[in-house]
């Protein structure tokens, strides 16, 4: 035949085969409405969270306005510094007379109005009740005034005494200081946990569904006549992994940007970037581990409705790691059980990013968890590859795991 | 052995599923330029044979050769395949899908796009290139499926039930394409239950039963190979005249018309003389059974004489030889 070609010119290298499969997955998934919607929703949620945090802090932690009438004005300075010692921002105002002051309290422009003093007791007008911190600040200022008067009476210098009192204190040497946890980092850790959990669960299911889609539509028979099972499986895992990675990076970046711009995140830029970097690294590792298992298990069934059942045990592990992490860590970041569990490749992808975002993870634990997760990959490639190879061309009833592992 | 250039050979292939012997020393070959029809009842082993050729299944023993060399993973890329249960991504666009499959067969992007256009035009689905496969009618999905088997310019075609579900126009197009590919030197193997179609398009036919090739040859050879039969019309005569002839069995009788089967070595002239003795003969002729009847005969034969059937097939194959 004149058109006969040499067999060599249709050779397709493994890399090309994997790349072709991955490119198809990437194209198909990025075009999918479900993916676009979840990504947008996650970005919106993360940004909304940052904004809400910011609003809450400006509402609750905002400065209090305290008005002082006439003679009490001399107290203003003292009340302000007493409040500052309590970590409370206070704005003081001089009010012309008690009547205007009361009106301002009534319409909420002032949180409290100091009208005068009967002896050492300050008279304060509030709308409903006096804020606890403000009460403490006022009480302390009133007490200080009494003290100053007595010191002056005894011939001492109140300023000097105050300075000496301020210097008094306790010097602590902790032999084994526990790590301190910043509440903000606890929140960021929880968000990191939710994010990686959703991403792993979502992409893992896409992998399993994708495998079954090829099986149920029988297109796998056409594909396997041209490429090897492992090339198909790897291409699928790589393609869907990239799609998931893109989602994690987008959402993580949106969170960091929203946190920094809105100012709701006090974390330094480098600290928040390291949270995202750990998130990405653990997503890649966790996805590789779970996607391989999901692909292998997916190959055992032939119908979309059986996917959920066959991957359920693994999904449960994923859920377990997340639920335990998210319920225990924010209240008890140093929990030993979670610390040990988070070293195991089954739980590390969900627990480690949370712990790392919260902080205080000993270096050796980070290294051990990474080493175990990386070490599990070749093992899973072998096992899942076998499940996949033996399961994917058998249609009909669900293939038993033992049969799929045994068959050559 | 004759030149094996472009010949696809199935050499004593065995495949067992648990207790079931799906293929029992299946052997036959298809020479370049030949359309080979594969017939047999459901579960006879046609699909298993084809899937083994494609490497989707592995044989327990035996081998498939092309050009005299065992088919390898690389040579499989030169095969155009249409699986029995149609396999396409339902939610992928027709054009993208065909380009993708062509590229998996090793074609470059431009080559793949060009062939996709050419084949979809030829098969009448070019206007649906940007539609998802699942939005096409069943018949059009079939055309896309055929396009996927042809898009990489295969050197061998293996099609499992390519005609099922096709409208008459599509059947015509499909037969034309198969003949054309064969004419360009490609061995074409297809299975079908539509025996009239097989009889019309195929150069040779193989009938499978219980995993064995029980008859194989050109349609003419197969029709000639059965026991000799004659139709004799002697109006008004009682059909019993025929059964009195030694070595003749009456199969059917209607009015004066009888269908007689002659044992081997029985002279049909003796039958003619007996007929003339019975009355005026209006018609006397040899009858060649149609493929449907042969098929029924071969397939419904008792299964316990598998060895005989196997030996018989050998005879037919040698007698028929290759064209």
Notes on the structure:
- The complex is a heterodimer of chains A (408) and B (323).
- Chain A contains 15 helices and 4 strands.
- Chain A is mostly helical and 408 residues long.
- A 4-stranded mixed β-sheet of chain A has the order 2-1-3-4, with helices on both faces.
- In chain A, a hairpin with a 2-residue loop joins strand 3 (112-118) and strand 4.
- In chain A, helix 1 crosses helix 9 (229-262) and helix 2 (33-60) runs parallel beside helix 9 (229-262).
- The longest helix of chain A is centred in the middle third of the chain and has 34 residues, at 183-216.
- Chain A is elongated.
- Mean pLDDT of chain A is 85; it is low at 1-8.
- With 323 residues, chain B is of the alpha/beta class.
- Chain B has helices spanning 46-53, 73-76, 94-104, 109-122, 138-150, 168-183, 195-201, 219-225, 240-243, 268-278, 291-300, 306-320; strands spanning 8-17, 20-30, 35-40, 61-66, 69-70, 79-82, 156-160, 188-191, 204-209, 212-218, 229-233, 248-254, 257-262, 283-287.
- In chain B, strands 6-7-8-3-9-10 form a 6-stranded mixed β-sheet, with helices on both faces. A 4-stranded antiparallel β-sheet of chain B has the order 2-1-4-5, covered by helices on one side.
- Chain B starts with 7 loop residues before the first strand and ends with a helix.
**Terminus-to-terminus distance of chain A:** 39 Å
Relative strand content of chain A: 5-15%
Q: How many E strands of chain B?
A: 14
Quick one: overall form of chain A?
Answer: elongated
Strand content of chain B: 25-35%
Question: Mind telling me the C-alpha Rg of chain A?
Answer: 32 Å
Query: Most extensive interface, residues per chain?
Result: A-B, 29 and 37 residues
Taken in chain order, the helices and strands of chain B follow as EEEHEEHEHHHEHEHEEHEHEEHEHH
| Residues in helix, % of chain A | 55-70%
Kindly report the average pLDDT value of chain A. Answer: 85
- Characterize the quaternary organization of these chains: heterodimer
Main beta-sheet strand count, sense and barrel state of chain A:
4 strands, mixed
Strand order of the largest sheet of chain B: 6-7-8-3-9-10
Which ranges of chain A are low-confidence, i.e. pLDDT below 50, for 5 or more consecutive residues?
Answer: 1-8
Helix segment count of chain B? 12
**pLDDT < 50 runs, ≥5 residues of chain B:** 304-323
Shape of chain B: elongated
Rg value of chain B = 23 Å
- Major sheet summary line of chain B: 6 strands, mixed
Helix/sheet category of chain B: alpha/beta
